UniProtKB/TrEMBL annotation:
Residues covered by the RNA polymerase sigma factor 70 region 4 type domain: 107-158
GO molecular-function terms, A-Z: DNA binding; sigma factor activity
Pfam families associated with the record: Sigma70_r2, Sigma70_r4_2
Residue ranges of every copy of the RNA polymerase sigma-70 region domain listed in the record: 27-81
Sequence similarity: Belongs to the sigma-70 factor family. ECF subfamily.
Name the record gives this protein: RNA polymerase sigma-70 factor, ECF subfamily
GO biological process: DNA-templated transcription initiation
Keyword field: DNA-binding, Sigma factor, Transcription, Transcription regulation
PANTHER family with a match to the protein in the record: ECF RNA POLYMERASE SIGMA FACTOR SIGL (PTHR43133:SF52), RNA POLYMERASE ECF-TYPE SIGMA FACTO (PTHR43133)
Amino acid sequence: MIGRSRSRDERDYAALMAEASPDLLAYFERRVGADGADLLAETMLIAWRRRSELPREVEPARMWLFGVARNVLRNAARSELRRERLGGALREVLTARQVEDPADVVAMRDLLERLDPDLAEIVTLVHWDGWSLVEIGRLLGMPASTVRGRYQRAKEELRAQLAVRAPR
């Protein structure tokens, strides 16, 4: 029977993690709160991948591990900053758009659902996405004249549906 033995790197890594994990978690929690556990896991993964670089002596190994943790924390802070900037930019774009009346949106979706799906797609590409009939033709792989004819048919069907729904 062949026994499995862990390499020295694995044993050193396991011993270091057992000893340093509580301190690393406290280090992260003081800085990021509940997200500290995620950062600890990331630190452990990086340390595992780089365990061959782990110093043999205990104190240098611990300092090496805290160096890895510091880099993980800095990367997390940069990622959070990028996320906040992107969120701010998206909020600016969304607030700059005119907010549609939800009742109108629901009514329009109801009308579109009654159309043939191919016609509904053309209408939504024109009116919601701002595509030209030529662009839609390229997208759907058909001549612009065919798209134009289908668009006209869709408008006629929508007019007929609106005429039926209009109050008298």
